[in-house]
What we know:
The chain has three helices and six strands, in the order αβαβββββα. The protein is α+β, with helices and mostly antiparallel strands. It has one domain. The strands form two sheets. Strands 1-2-3-4 form a four-stranded antiparallel β-sheet. The protein has a two-stranded antiparallel ribbon with strand order 5-6. The longest helix has 7 residues.
Amino acid sequence: FDENELADHKEASETGINPYPIYAAVDKDKLSEKGENFPGTWFEFTPHEAGYAALGAFVSTKNFGSEFEKGKLKKKGKKKTICYMQGESS
């Protein structure tokens, strides 16, 4: 298993060593609830941020999985590994 975090890929992608990874996933709960054209259906994540592009709702990958209230960090979540993130997108 790759225990690296998504944020660990920042340096390699910023220096051009690797292509910049942009992952996309479908939120299956939103898909069945609202349909494929609902803006909150498509979830994206990169080494820098994760969120819903159509909603303009993103968070730094360092804080992905954390709890927020009114835009303020409420509870820091555990960092997500690459394997976890890839599992989210399948």
